[in-house]
Structure formats: structure tokens, C-alpha cells
């Protein structure tokens, strides 16, 4: 229930949910305050346009990203932890659930690091909406498609904070507390905070960097992908704040 409530609230705060809320407020106010209606509709329309451009969406994601790093130069990590990026449900070509595009980006880099460092791998991700846990699908893809063995599977978590805490329960008994953390670059600030708050020492291993817009004409053209980038940015910012609050409250 907590997972559903949290994600429902997040959906309303992220574009285009927040824009739809503004338009709904405009409709409510419009009955008695037509000037407020016009201002809200204009503001929501301008915000929707801006958030739908790579000029803003791509730039916002770029702001979240740490500087490119070279985790292969640090041999002090004890294990590679790769976070789930989602599930491709009912994949007909694979005969069932498998990892989605974001998950594959992370798995590819985890496999690259495994070959460079030779450190054991843990896949992390549960099944908050049922069906196949992400960690299981990731293990299958790593071993079948990338020929990389998976030493541990953490398949109970429902979000990044639980990724960290449940992974610690798996690895700490083996004396593993310093890990290479694999996820998208723009997700790394939230993921790193979650893992460090759980007790890990983190060597960031970011991948899937968002490209900084150059100001080319197409950067100002609205697109669904740019709106998705804006949504990811808001999701990360809200998530970072929420995680700090939860950790401060001891939850």
C-alpha cells in the first residue's frame, strides 16, 4: 500500500501530472475568477512546453549527474551492485518477463566492470507490482546474454532506499561494505545517498549519461522523450528530499 500511495503522489508531482493539476485548479477557479483561470492556463501551457523540450528536460537531468568517473582505477571495492531499472512485461520474443531498456544499460556496464575488475556481482530489485522480481530477470540476462555470473540476488526491495538496505543485509554478513554502485548517472545522487545511509562505502559507477543540450533548433522542439526526462528530474529531486526525511526520522 505504501508503494502505491508513494508512487501515486509522485505521479501527480511529476510532469505532466503537475501540469494537469494546475489546469484542474484553473477550471475550479474559472467559475468565479476568470482572470485567475487565464493566468493558470497560460502558465501551465508554458510550463508544459518548456518541460517537453530537450533544452530544459535534458539540461535538468544533466545538472543531477556527477562528473564522469573511472571506477576501474579503484580496486578497493569488494562487489559490484547493479540496480534494477524496470521490467519488460510479457516479452513475446523471450517468452516471459525480462529486463527493460534502462535495465539493459545498467547490466551492460555491470558486465563491463566485472570483466575489468573481476569482482562478484549482486543484482538488486524486487517486484513491487507483482510478477518477476527485477533482480531475478537481471540475473538471467547477465548470465545468459552477458556470460557474467551473479553471486547474490536481492529480490525484496521496492525502491532505491530498500535496494540499499536489503542489499546491506545480504552483503554485510559476508564482510562486504565497499561496493561499486551501477545505475544511471542522473540517478546516482539519490542511489549513493541511499547506499551510504544504509552503511555502505560507495564507489560510483554511473552509466547512461544524459547529454547536455547544445542549443540547436531541435532542442526547442517539444517531444515525449524530453517530457520523460523532465519527469525523471522531478522524480529524483523529490526522491532525494523524501529519503533525507525518512533517514532523519529513522524510517
Q: Characteristics of this structure?
A:
two-stranded antiparallel ribbon; 2 domains; elongated; 251 residues; 5-stranded parallel sheet; Rossmann fold; single chain; alpha/beta; 9 helices
Question: Could you explain how this protein is built, in words?
Answer:
The protein is α/β, with parallel strands linked by helices. It has nine helices and seven strands, in the order H-H-H-H-E-E-E-H-E-H-E-H-E-H-E-H. The chain has two domains: 93 residues, no CATH class; 133 residues, HUPs (Rossmann fold, 3-Layer(aba) Sandwich). Strands 5-4-1-6-7 form a five-stranded parallel sheet. The two termini are 16 Å apart. 37% of the residues are buried. The model has no long low-confidence stretch (mean pLDDT 89).
Short description, anyone?
By secondary structure, the protein is an alpha/beta fold.
